[in-house]
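2024-03-11 09:14:02 INFO queue: dequeued item 1-acyl-sn-glycerol-3-phosphate acyltransferase, len=295
2024-03-11 09:14:02 INFO validating residues
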Amino acid sequence: MSGMTSSLRALLRLTLFLVWTVAVVPPYALMLGLRLHGPCRSMAVFYWRVSTRLIGLRVQVRRGVFTRARPLLILSNHTSYLDIVVLGALVDTCFVAKSEVGTWPGFGLLARLGRTVFVQRKRASTGKGRDEIAHRLAAGEPLVLFPEGTSNDGNRVLPFKSALLAVAEPGHGRRRGSQESADATAALTVQPVSLAYTRLDGIPIGRVWRPYYAWYGDMDLAPHLWTVLGLGTVTAEVIIHDPIEAGAFASRKALTRHCQSSVSSGVSELLSGREGSSGTPSREETDHDKDTGQP
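2024-03-11 09:14:37 INFO prediction written
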């Protein structure tokens, strides 16, 4: 691909995405202000689904469905800001993110409108973040948490950090003085998810090309986004693992180890190109509504 073609493609995709966002934000913000949470969630999923098309993302679910059980905490590996677009197009959810995301131009606004739970990195402030997570779960809102604590290079899954999974410990809400949160914690369902970027224009992406889509380390956001938008159509594949009951594990560390093992094995399967033992065909995200139980 020539540099001219790449730049024109990036400009077109960025323009379409911005126009689409400007069109959606006012009615969404109005519904949010009126506390019309059902329509807000439906619009958010629709917004992300259209966005995948505009920026050149093809989302496929290799297998699995999102549970209807609530409260629900979804744990996924984290490769890029694109993960939010992919997962947001599959399930009506809010995300847990580091507080710095709220200050990013453009992305910060979208994160706040999406009712993201912002968590401080400082140990002294993590309790507040855990309490907010517990409160949202108690209200029946599915949350997505990236337990690696940072993004990876697209070739491997980093060790999961168990600190924020304190909400999965029995009695967490009670210790913090909230019976509602304690009840939700006791019944918490956790669902691991594996996500990988596997093909570019239908051709398998090797180890060398995966970092083009991964955003990690000290990479600058703007030039990375411009490069991604200038490339061809990338396929993001997802494995939705079976849901598990948090209360079935002796500790949050045991729960964390189980989830990391599931996510890591799923990512390895996706990157290797294996179809999986079940032989279940991939499904486009637009055909996934009836399976996920989303509105």
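2024-03-11 09:14:37 INFO annotate: The CA atoms of residues 12 and 229 lie 9 Å apart.
2024-03-11 09:14:38 INFO item closed
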